[in-house]
Amino acid sequence: MTRTIIYNTTILTLDEDDSFYYPGTVEIEDDRITKVYSGNPSEELLAASFVTLLDGTDKLVMPGFVDLHFHTSVAKGFGDELPLKEYLDEVWYPSVRALNKERAFTGAMHSYCTAIKSGTTTVNDMYRFVGSLADAASKIGIRAVLSNEVALAEHKLDLIEDNEISFLENNGRDSDRIRVWMGHEWMCTSDLDLMAQVGQMKKKLGTGLHIHLCESEQEVEDVQAKYGKTPMEIAYESGCLGPDTIAAHCVHLTDNDIALLAKTGTSVSYDPGSNAKLGNGIARLPDLQAAGVNVGMGIDAFECENSPDMFELMKFGSLIQRALHKDASLGKPHNILRMATKNGAKALGIDTGVIQPGKKADVIVVDLTKNQMFTPLLKEPKKRKTMLESHLVFGCNGSAVQHSIIDGKLVMKDFQVLAVDEEKLRKEMDAMFEVISEEMKSLRVISST
Questions:
Q1: I need a surface site. Which of 71, 136, 205, 344 has the fewest CB within 10 A?
Q2: The pairing of beta strand 59-63 with beta strand 52-55
Q3: Distance of alpha carbon 13 from its chain centroid, rounded?
Q4: pTM for this model (two decimals)
Q5: What is the tens place of the pLDDT at every residue in 162-181?
Q6: Of 211, 301, 222, nearest to 264 (Cα)?
Q7: What span, in angstroms and rounded, lies between the C-alpha atoms of 449 and 447?
Q8: Contact at 8 Å (CB) between 243 and 264?
Q9: Coiled coil where (predicted)?
Q10: What is the CATH architecture of 65-72+84-300?
Q11: Ranges assigned E (strand) in 113-255
Q12: Is residue 60 helix, strand or coil?
């Protein structure tokens, strides 16, 4: 049995009772949180040789982030000026066609490393060579739900058979820390038959589905012109919606689309940074929430956001709604924090997202002295909690994350990810993209539509 204790700390639980402790203690045994309480452990426990102690003085303990729409990526900062369709044709599809098992592993190690360093403990990752992604997740220690980029064969991405093999070979690895879902790229690289097959395979395997839906106006218009239905309506009729489906983006929705999401219990990944950077618009977040849809948050690929930082995403995701609707009451930190943690965990069916006894120990420790980002901060607990929520959403970034515990294991300590040589990894990524960027030139010949 392993045992970790974080003591003399501030604890933002995000549980149903909105519990808050200052000062407080979190005790972890193996992969679970066992105790959360006010005050400090006994002197005897603090002196025990079998306990790993983390001094929480001037620190905050909170749930790790669940990145609900994530892509391992290799080409951040390349082709930033392009809108979605051109970006996919010129950058994304050529870069993923240039992959092999080794390159996918390196890309995943770098993507997961940078995500962990900014507070993410779970990624819902749709990419290629899922076995390599699983190997990377296993080595680095992140919690991962993985899926293939399933499309029609002519697009030279992944086939439905690839995703089935990924599931059979990798689902449940590392005591279920690594799961495999079905993936579906989007209707612009699919057709009605393939969408139906994805729904059938999802049911056959008893797994979930990660799918892009209604991301751009052009996508919706093209699909409606071809089939007379929205992408959401096609997904519904194909059996692809449900409580075990994550629909990414969902920017351009009809009222009926929202009703279908609510009716089926489908979760949505709100991806405001990617949607803005690619010029796709702003999701109808208040309408989704009013309809009772569970909404989490996702970075998308680093190419689409240029940062893995969920702190930055929370800020932007709140501010853009306030600006659009001219309403400063929207995007309250209290709610945005839950979207980035608890709601994502619910969507993926994983027992994380809150600091509570019995929950999986996916916990981050934030340095409240880092670069003055949390100053000023009152001591009275109620006021301290409100100010902390504000600072977390509006005033800080991922560089304040000092420690990360995933599945009860210390994965990052004192700002360093323990399983990797970060400098070596950086050089490997640079060298790999030098080669990929050249190969991409010959892989841009296939249109995404």
A1: 205
A2: unpaired
A3: 19
A4: 0.97
A5: 999 999 999 999 999 999 99
A6: 211
A7: 5
A8: yes
A9: none
A10: Alpha-Beta Barrel (3.20)
A11: 120-127, 143-148, 178-180, 182-184, 209-213, 245-249
A12: strand
